[in-house]
Design brief:
Shape: elongated
Order of helices and strands: HHHHH
Number of helices: 5
Distance between the termini: 67 Å
Structural class: mainly alpha
Radius of gyration: 21 Å
Helix content: 40-55%
Length: about 110
């Protein structure tokens, strides 16, 4: 018989909280992070790189840059642009919109 998974309700405003819901000490969090990175044999990866991943994944999912800037706490959208990166797949819908507009214009004799 399978044991039912325990659900913990976290009542904390911290992203990384201890089991008690309190703030994890920075040195403990970094130690755990770098232990995992080492075990996974990932090279040249820092904790700060997670901010880039966060911003990039949101941008690639179509989240507005201004929302991403707010979530990251950026005051200047230029900083958010430095953090957010698109891959060719995430840009495809923009090209498809342009393609649809061009097709409609051709049918109407505009292009």
């Amino acid at each position: 018989m399978k044991e039912k998974a325990k659900v913990r309700h976290i009542r904390s405003s911290h992203v990384f909280a201890s089991e008690a819901g309190t703030k994890i000490l920075r040195r403990n969090l970094l130690r755990a992070f770098y232990n995992v990175v080492e075990r996974a044999k990932i090279e040249d990866f820092r904790f700060h790189d997670l901010r880039h991943t966060f911003a990039t994944r949101l941008a690639q999912a179509g989240v507005d840059l201004y929302k991403i800037a707010k979530l990251l706490g950026h005051k200047d959208i230029k900083m958010t642009q430095r953090y957010s990166h698109h891959c060719p797949e995430s840009l495809r819908d923009g090209v498809e919109v342009l393609d649809k507009v061009t097709t409609v214009q051709r049918k109407r004799g505009y292009a």
